[in-house]
Amino acid sequence: MDDLTEMLKGTLEGCVLEIIGGEETYGYAITRRLNELGFADVIEGTVYTILLRLERNGLVQVAKRRSEVGPPRKFYALNDAGREELARFWAKWDYVSSRIDKLKEGGR
Amino acid sequence: MNFWDTITGGDLTREWTAFEARAAALPADHRAAWEQVKIHLAAHSDLTGRNLPPVVDGVLGLLEETAAEGQGADEVLGEDVEGFCAAVMGGKGARTYRDRWREQLNRNVARKLGGLGG
Amino acid sequence: MGIRDIVEGKKQWWAHVARVKALPPDYRIVYQEMQRYLFKIGPADTSLLADVVDFFEEGAAAGKGVRQLIGDDVAAFCDDLVKGSPTYAEVRRESAGGEPGPTGK
């Protein structure tokens, strides 16, 4: 689906948290995962800015690991604050999506 | 020098005089809100100030309506007057400095990368 | 700030500039335009610039072009980078003593 950028804006950070929560991973792998999920327009740069923000807000643990090519690669894992933030994201998501579904069904 | 002369040049003064006359008829707290609105809208003005009058007319009308209904100015504009002004100007397709810099950045990148033949 | 801090800061800055110079041409062009834009909108954050160079070095090493990495809308990438840090406009507003606007965490 095209043109999801605006709609995804507030939720992409939560998606990235969820992916990192599954296992320690790095920017390119996260991007690929989102692309395979169906968000084809998500580019590495966008994921990078989210990772940088998560790092600065103290929600992730970062480890630099050697890679086969080029400079060391940054790997990300959730810390306790990150797990709390992820739980908050899903709670908010459940609330918003249930309200919007209700609206669509014509309830009040 | 009058505020509007400064930012618009004299030829728009008559329009602003009419606005100020309408503002003078507002109750005190609406008039205070108007002073705030002017300052923040000016930040979104283009170089000539000509993009402002239609917006100002609209905001002034909104203040007049709420005054007539006995509502407080903060009930319509909210506490964040600056944010409100940015929103109304944005709705009118106003271009701020930041927008100009943004376009300039993307244009420069496109031109210079094009020059690489890549 | 002592002399030593200034010297140390300059050394770091020149080391940073040398890393930028070593990037492939497309990355270098984009980096330089980005830096100009970022300096215009907010207080200089050299650690952010260093992070960008890290990211660009990784992308270049993986054989990707800069546009493949960050897309055509370089300005949007910059805006995402500085989301949450104060711009000059916000710094002015805060120092004017007005209510800070909603920053949206």
From TrEMBL, chain A:
Residues 16-87 form the Transcription regulator PadR N-terminal domain. One of its GO terms (molecular function) is DNA binding. Gene3D superfamilies: Winged helix-like DNA-binding domain superfamily/Winged helix DNA-binding domain (1.10.10.10). Keywords: DNA-binding. Pfam families: PadR (PF03551). This is DNA-binding PadR family transcriptional regulator.
From TrEMBL, chain B:
One of its GO terms (molecular function) is DNA binding. It comes from the Bacteria. The keyword DNA-binding applies. Keywords: DNA-binding. Pfam families: DUF1048 (PF06304). The keyword DNA-binding applies. This is DNA-binding ferritin-like protein (Dps family). It comes from Umezawaea tangerina.
Automatic annotation (TrEMBL), chain C:
This is DNA-binding ferritin-like protein (Dps family). One of its GO terms (molecular function) is DNA binding. It comes from Umezawaea tangerina. Keywords: DNA-binding. It comes from the Bacteria. It holds the Pfam family DUF1048.
